[in-house]
Amino acid sequence: MKTAMYCNQCEETVANKACTVRGVCGKDSELANLMDELKEYLKVLSLQINDDKEDKLEEKRFIMNSMFKLITNANFNHESIRKQLLIAKSYTKKEDVTPYYEANEDLNALKSLIMGGLMGISAYHSHAIHLGYEDNEIHNFLVDVLATINDVKELDVLLEVSDKCGYYGVKVMELLDKTNTTAYGNPEITKVNIGVGNRPGILVSGHDLNDIEQLLEQSKDSGVDIYTHSEMLPAHYYPKLKKYTHLVGNYGNAWWKQTSEFETFHGPIIFTTNCIVPPKANASYVDKTYATGNCDYPGFKRIKELAVGSKDFSEVIEQAKLCQVPQEIENGEITGGFAHNQVLALADVVVENIKNGSIRKFVVMSGCDGRKKDRGYYEEFARTLKDDTIILTSGCAKYRYNKLQLKDINGIPRVLDAGQCNDSYSWVVVAMKLKEVFELNDINELPISFNIAWYEQKAIIVLLSLLHLGIKDIKVGPTLPGYLSETTANYLVEHYGISGINTVTEDIATFG
Ligand code: SF4
Ligand code: SF3
């Protein structure tokens, strides 16, 4: 049966099957179909340049940025996607393409997983490029897979490609880690204020650290304060960003609470990437909301670009000066900044606490938060874990438990936040170090378990990266991706020990 749209790329998809009338995220069928068309053009263009792609940097950047625009909650602007389609048509000299649907459910499952992984890779690569680090091998991998994926009919081949996605996932997270730490220094333990100051503010959401740096520099003498929102919280952990005294705090929680929290913020809001939630019809903040980079929403203003990578935030700063001071919705502090360099600096203390039995276990709870009720599991799980267990987190999943005030273990906080979802890379570095210190043969022998929450495609590339590194028995929730077929789900269970979540009591019993 032909449906108005067909999208099942995120965790929120209707009945864990597909959005067929309108997306739960707010994407309408017209936009979903434009996005499907763009996806197809990217494959055609990739095929066209694949044999001779070495110096096709312009096309490769176009493909990467387009893939980023397709991520859940990044771009809701029909015009923005239409513009990409026009460019794709001019590159390919094709007036139309037929969106491709894979009829075989097992092939479709793996192709969907791979496409999700490629979107995640594209997002992270795009952030690294914004700070001047580009990897042609990552570009080439993207083009190579897009060029060939429709024609692959063997599950074995797709399993190899999804493993390669994991390889490039590690590579791109490593690149972004290098990019961010070279530009802004290594994250360090930082207490972040969650209350408000007494000056008007600008709230910055999304993942792009270069955007917030440019804003901080341009607003430093303006009398306006800068606040982070959701995935921008880790900006506070970087020495070269935290030196700005008008970077005063983090306002609100994970992305899905924005429609109420943006109302009380009063000042302008800037989206540097996902996750955007469509504002309610009576929202008061739309005319003060800006988007930049690959994210967009109809009615939001754009940040002016002066040259590639250089942005002009003067309009938003001037608008902020006229706004009321933010309304306090919380107060106190949260602590973060436990990326690999900081944790390894504390390695002796951590190892000592493992050896004397004070720390018995680590649970990596990285990934995404989401608005479904069953996400309450993660808060309860964090609360219920025994006192000798440390939670290692990254991504917006942390908002379910980073304000719980769990007791320290000999001065070590029980929730260690490394940063954004891409900073899951830090936990890989830390795990490798512990494996070396304890002279183990296999990373799975460490007292580390993985309970990953996913929502969108960046969590998928994190997951594929962990699988590529050989990490076993990962729990993925709150549900497994809806596009997985029985055969592919069974394969993941048998080969990697992946499982969905159960009740908190059952899972705590499994994790020990
Ligand atoms: Fe549905 Fe998610 Fe697709 Fe939005 S991105 S249409 S919520 S599956
Ligand atoms: Fe969150 Fe969107 Fe995924 Fe970077 S902001 S993790 S959901």
Automatic annotation (TrEMBL):
It catalyses: A + NH4(+) + H2O = hydroxylamine + AH2 + H(+). Hybrid [4Fe-2O-2S] cluster binds at H207, E231, C275, C368, C396, C421, E456, K458. One of its GO terms (molecular function) is hydroxylamine reductase activity. Its cofactor is hybrid [4Fe-2O-2S] cluster; [4Fe-4S] cluster. The modification Cysteine persulfide is found at C368. InterPro entries: HCP/CODH (IPR004137), Hydroxylam_reduct (IPR010048), Prismane-like_a/b-sand (IPR016099), Prismane-like_sf (IPR011254), Prismane_a-bundle (IPR016100). Keywords: 4Fe-4S, Cytoplasm, Iron, Iron-sulfur, Metal-binding, Oxidoreductase. [4Fe-4S] cluster binds at C7, C10, C19, C25. It is found in: Cytoplasm. Its EC number is 1.7.99.1. Belongs to the HCP family. This is Hydroxylamine reductase.
